[in-house]
Task: structure prediction
Amino acid sequence: MKPLKINPDGNQRLSLSKLQAWENLKYGMFIHFGMSTFANCELPSGNDSVELYNPAALDVDQWIKTAKDAGMQYAVLTAKHVAGHCLWPSKLTEYSVKNSPVKTDVVEAFVNACSKHGVMPGLYYCSWDNHHRFGSRTPSDTVKSEQIYPGQQLSFTTSEYQDFQSSQLEELLTQYGKIGEIWIDIPGVLPRCYRQELYQQLSRLQPDAVIMMNSGCGDGSKYRVDKSWPSDLIAIERWLPNSKDGHIKWREIEGKAYYLPGEVCDPIGKEWFYLEGDEPRSDAELLGMYLVTRSRGANLLLDVPPNKRGVIPQTYADSLMRLRANIEKNENVF
Result:
């Protein structure tokens, strides 16, 4: 294999200085919250009543204050997950907080809280949507077929769904001010031509934001261009960066060199969304996750899910504060 010839500036959209500024954030909070929290299911059917979402003690400011107190410098909120229920009052669907018992615009409250506490806001949007189908076949429809026919692309989105996704993202990226990170999950159900158009749209609406097309589980050593490109970041989901070389930041994509920082994402417990009895990992495991991630050159986006009341449980907050203390004993990062 020929060695990769690196353009000192790279061929990526964002400058090295901007990407390295993002890397210097080091540690953030992933916030999985929404209909899945109330359905007790990470991947709901999309048919749950809009009234099921009912966080009676919702306190978004508490989420971000907890992140700040824990030493986190950015946060990413699941604005819309697999259930399709939207945490903002989207004009494009009735399946949102505007028709739920608690009508708070969570996206607005989240961005405002980030501004108040000096935390960079990021927004997550899932392309797998079990409620807004528009004729699409989601992984929920095809999981059994994919077990029979492994490796085949059996899930897909229609052009009507793609128009819907683009319009919803325009709402999110034009109504709430500056967003620092944009997370697109399950981009593999989107065709390459649409992903390219989507990337261009996102970069036009929020030109300084880093864009994550989630490349999914793994240590980041292999990158699926057919499933995740274009992107500004490489996801290392439920894994740690490659142990031999750490995260490889310079990659050759279709004959050109790109600087692609890595982001490890993993929950504080076992589940992405809050589930009763899901206790935080041990202090030693969380410290190890942080130190290994950082020593191997990636950021850590630790998922800390609020409960059905709409607050981060005290057990999670206490665990985060112990983690901060343990990090400070091992590495002067805060």
